[in-house]
Amino acid sequence: MKRRLLTAAIDSATLDSCLMAARNTHPDEFIGLLRGEERNGVVGVSGLLLAPFAEFHPDHSSFSEWHLPAGLGAVGTVHSHPNGVLLPSRQDKLLFGRSGPAHLILGPPYARSSAAFFGRDGKPLEFAIEG
Ligand SMILES: [Zn+2]
């Protein structure tokens, strides 16, 4: 059985908010949640949510998954890699696997070209910037 390939679409204002938050948190790592909905194989991202009890450190960041309200509409996470490596770590893949279908990783210089999306399995997701 062939699985349908997911893609992502993020609105430009939301991407810019994520980039600004990551830039402001640098050299610590920023983490937040992405709000949106999945429809017809496309994960549409339309908002940045600040994660509850988030902690930002140079080499890792975290938030309390116990405090996520139900019905939040979160489709994934966004976090930064201040070292500029736009690939998920082993820990990232564990987080992605339990936190929704689309995950954004950002690195310096925090421009639109230094953003990458990954799926639940940690594999790259093609994405479009809208608006
Ligand atoms: Zn990471």
Give the key terms.
globular; two-stranded antiparallel sheet; binds zinc ion; Cytidine Deaminase, domain 2; alpha/beta; 131 residues; 8-stranded mixed β-sheet; 2 helices
Explain how this protein is built.
This protein is of the alpha/beta class and 131 residues long. It has one domain (7-65, 73-130): Cytidine Deaminase, domain 2 (3-Layer(aba) Sandwich), CATH 3.40.140.10. 18% of the residues lie in helices and 37% in strands. The strands form 2 sheets. It has an 8-stranded mixed beta sheet. A hairpin with a 2-residue loop joins strand 2 and strand 3 (42-50). The longest helix has 14 residues, at 12-25. It is globular. It binds zinc ion. Zinc ion is lined by residues 79, 81, 88-89, 92.
Short characterization:
With 131 residues, the protein is an alpha/beta fold. The chain contains 2 helices and 10 strands; from the N terminus they run E-H-E-E-E-E-E-H-E-E-E-E. The protein is globular and about 35 Å long.
From the spread of the alpha carbons, the general shape counts as globular
Taken in chain order, the helices and strands follow as EHEEEEEHEEEE
What's the total number of strands? Answer: 10
CATH class: Alpha Beta
Low-confidence stretches: none
Mean pLDDT: 91
Question: Domains counted in the coordinates: how many?
Answer: 1
Bound molecules: zinc ion
Topology-level CATH name: Cytidine Deaminase, domain 2
Write out the CATH superfamily name: Cytidine Deaminase, domain 2
Major β-sheet strand ordering? 9-8-7-6-2-3-1-10
Helicity range of the residues? 10-25%
